[in-house]
User: What shape does this take?
Amino acid sequence: MAFSVLAISELIHVFNVRNNEKSIFKTGILSNIKLILAIGVSFVLVLAILLVPALREIFSIVVLPKENIFEVIILVLSPLIIVEIMKLLKINTFKNEQ
Assistant: This one.
């Protein structure tokens, strides 16, 4: 479960770190095609590790119980939600000093 959450949440969190002040909905999720492609390839590789038995054995990962899927989704999306709330409240943003 830890591997799933950490690997996938970092792929989602990359949208947050693109801009420290603007929301991902204002900057546009699909504005960087190379980033989308890299995230897609990385996600497919993570899914391969999670779903292919030989790769699961190499990485010492057990099959995730179906009851924990909802928890994984919540934990994967939590950095996105937390950072978007911080951007909305203008916490942890910086202004360009000139």
Observations:
- The mean pLDDT is 84.
- Residues 4 and 47 are 9 Å apart (CA to CA).
- DSSP finds five helices and no strands in the chain.
- The helical segments are 2-13, 24-27, 33-51, 53-58, 69-88.
